[in-house]
Amino acid sequence: MTKTGIMIAGHGSTMAYNKGVLEMQADLLRTKGFEDVYVGFNEFSIPSIRETAEEMVEDGFDEIIVLPFFVASGLHVTRDIPMKHFGLPRNCTDGTVEIEGKQVHVIIDQPFGEDPNLTDILAERIEELRTPGKDTRVIVMGHGSRLDFNSSVVELNARRLEERGYGKVYVGYNEFNEPKIEDVIPVMIDDGAEEIIALPLFISLGKHLMMDVPGKLGIEDFSDGGIVRRNGREVELKYAVPVGADPRLCDVLVEKLRKYQ
Question: Is residue 105 in some structural domain?
Answer without folding.
Answer: yes
